Amino acid sequence: MACPPAAAVTPDAQRPMPRAVLYALLGQTAISAGTHLVAKQATGLVDPLLLVTLRLLLASLAFGVVLCFVPPPRLPPRHTWAWLMGYGLLAGPVNQGLFLYGLARSKATHGALLYALTPVGVYLVALALKRERPGAHRLVGIAVAFVGVAVLLLGRGLSEALGPLVGDVFILGAVASWVAWTIESRPFAAAHGGLRTAAWAILAGGVWVAPVAPFVVTVDALAAIPPVGWACLAYLVFLTSLLAYALWNYALARTDASRVAVFTNLQPVATALLAWALLGEKLVWEVGVGGVLVLLGVRLAQR
Fold first, then answer.
1. In the chain, domain spans
2. Is pTM, for the whole model, over 0.90?
3. 87 Cβ contact list (under 8 Å, min separation 6)
4. What span, in angstroms and rounded, lies between the C-alpha atoms of 262 and 217?
5. Among 2, 106, 195, 222, which one is most buried in terms of CB atoms within 10 A?
6. What is the largest CA-CA distance in the chain?
7. What is the per-residue pLDDT across 232-257, written as a single tens digit (0 to 9) for each?
8. CB of 213 within 8 A of CB of 32?
9. Which of 101-105, 115-119, 125-129, 163-167 has the highest mean pLDDT?
10. What is the DSSP letter of 242?
C-alpha cells in the first residue's frame, strides 16, 4: 500500500542529530526496555488476546483525549484514511499481537535482542526503496551495533540463544511489521507531526479490534485479571502505546528512519540493566562487551 502524498523526505546523514530528538529516542528506549519486562509479566497473568485488545482500546481512548487538546487538525485528511487503516492494522493488532503472543512463549531478553534487528531491516528497505542514501558512518555503526547484539545473544552458547524458538518466530514477525511501519510512517510523520501520526495509527488499531472486543472483553475475563495485571496493562497503555509511540514518531518526523531505528539496539542493554536492578539477574560478561559495542554502533550511526 503506497504512502499518501506527503512532504518530501531529504536525507539527514550529514546533519547532527538535534538534542530534542536524541532525548526523545533515549526516553523511548528506556520505556521500551521496561516494556519487554512488563509485557512478559503481563502475558503470564492475562491472555495475550485479551491483553492486546484492552491495550489498543484503552490507548485509543487515551489518544482521543490527547487529540482534544492539540491544535487542529484532529482528524487525518480523508485521502489518508485507507493508508492509516492499513498501516494502523500493521502497527497495532499485528505488531502488538505477534509481540505479546511470542513473548508469552519466549523470554523478555529474547524480545529485546530480536527488536535490535530493526535498524538492519529499516536501512536495507530504505536503500532498496531509494529513500535514503548509503553512508559510511551508518553502515559501520549498524554493523558494530549488530555485532554487539550477536555477542549478547550468543555469549552463553547457541543452544541457549535458540531457546523457545516458536515464540521467537512470532516476535520476528512483530519486528518485521515494526520495520514496515517505521519506513512507511516516516514521510507521513514529517507531513502531519509525530503525535498525530501515533494517535491516528493507534485509533485505527482500535477500530480493527473493536468488532472482536465483545467476545474477548467479558465481565468474567476482566474480573480474573489480578491487580499486578492491571498495573502491567497501565504501563503498556500509557507509557508504551501512548508516550513511547509519540516519542518514536516525533523522532521520525525530524530525522531519517534508519537513524531512529538504530536506537532499538540500546534495548537489549537497557533491558539487561533493568532485569539486574529489578529482578536481581546477574550482569555477565557478554552484557558488558555487547553493550559497549552497541553503544559505539549507535554513536557512529547517529552522527
1. 23-301
2. no
3. 1, 180, 181, 184, 185, 201, 204
4. 36
5. 106
6. 56
7. 999 999 998 888 888 887 887 777 77
8. no
9. 101-105
10. I
